[in-house]
Design brief:
- The structure is a single chain.
- The protein is of the alpha+beta class.
- Helices cover 28% and strands 16% of the residues.
- It has two domains: 274 residues, DD-peptidase/beta-lactamase superfamily (Beta-lactamase); 113 residues, no CATH class.
- Helix 1 packs antiparallel against helix 13 and helix 2 packs parallel to helix 6.
- It is globular, with a radius of gyration of 20 Å.
Length: 418
Amino acid sequence: MTELKADVDPAEVGFDPARLDRADRHFRRYVDDGRLPGWLITVSRRGQLAHVSSYGARDVEAGLLVETDTLWRIYSMTKPITSVAALMLYEEGAFELTDPVSAFIPSFAGLRVYAGGSDLKPVTVPATEPVRIWHLLTHTAGLTYGFHRAHPVDARYRQAGFEVGWPRGMDLVQACDAWAAEPLLFQPGAEWNYSVATDVLGRVVEVASAQSLDEFLSGRVFGPLGMTDTGFWVRGDDMARMAALYTPAAGPAAGLHRMDEMGRVASRPPRLLSGGGGLISTAADYHRFTQMLLDRPGSPGGELDGARLLGPRTVAYMTRNHLPGGADLEAFGRPLNAEAPQRGVGFGLGVAVVIDAAAGKTLGSEGEYSWGGMASTAFWVDPAEQLTACFFTQLMPSSAYRIRPQLRQLVYQALADG
C-alpha cells in the first residue's frame, strides 16, 4: 500500500495555502448538504505532493469515513491507463497506429456504417476505410455507448445488452465481436463519439502482447509504478476499504440513493476485462500514474522512480490534439451531457487536451490533458504549470454537478507565483 500524504509545504511550490483551502471549504458543502457522500483531493506541483484532503464518508450508512487508502471505482479513468499500455506496445513495434483493428480482431473486417432508418431496421453502407488503431485511441472509430441515448445505434447497443454494462457471462472477445456486428455511427475518422473504443483497444493489447489485459497491466504498468492497490476487482479484506456507490435520490427530497447492486461488481473477478472502465484504484496509485506522465524536474515524461513506461516524445505525442484540422470537441464531436467544456478542448491518444483555454471559460493552460470517470472522479495534468490534480468520490452520473470545472478554478486561483 502506497502512503499518501503531502511531502512539501504548498507555499514552497507556489501555492497560497489559504487560497488552496478554498477548494476544501467549497466541496465540504457538497457533503454537508447531501450532494456527495465524501471526497478526496490531491494536488501536486513540480513533482511534489502539496495538498491531500478528504471529507465525508466512503460509506454513509455504515458511518465509515473517507481515508487516504479508500478504494474507488475509477470507471473511465481506466481509459488513459489502457491507452498507455497500447502505446507501450506501439513503442515496441507491435503495430503502427494506422494498422487496421481487424489485423488483431478479425470481426472488425467489413464493417457497415449507419446511413438511415430506425434502430430496428437500419439502412447501412460499407465503411470506406478500416477502423484503425488510432481511431480507437481518439474515439473516432464510429463506435458508441448504449447509455448515450442519442442515436438509433445507441438503442441497438442497449438491445444487445450494452448500456452501462454488458450481458452476463460475456467476455471481451465476445463483446468486441458483438460491437463489430452493429453499424458504426459514421465513417471511421469522420467524427468524434465517446464510446467502447478503449475496450476494443484493450483487446488489441491482449492480442498484441499474448497476455490477458489484467496480466499485462499488472506486470507492465502497475508493478513497475508501485500501483499496488489497482486492479479489476477487490480481494478479501480489502473490500472494507471500498467506497459505496451512490446516485442523487429521486423526488423532491435531497440526498443520496445507494447503488449496491452495481457496486457489488467490484467484489468478484470480472469475466469481461474492461479497458474502458473496469479498474478500481486509490488516490495514491492514480497520483503515481499522473506523475509518470508528467515532465518533472530531472525526469522527462513517461518515467517514475526509475521505471520508464514510455519515451518522453511518445507522451508528448499522446497528449497533443489529434482531431483533424486541429478541431475541438464542440466542432468535431457529438454532443455529450458532460460537465467539462468541449469548446477549446481537443482529444489526444486517450486523453482530452486543452487547445484554447480562453474558449472553454475555465481556468487552465493550453496543453493540459485530462479525463474523468462515471462516478465523478477526475484528474488533470498541466505540463505548463507542472501541476497535477485528482478528485475522488462515488456519485453517478458524473454530470450531476459541475465538480470538474469548479475544482480547476479553485486550484488555479491558489497559484501565487508569477
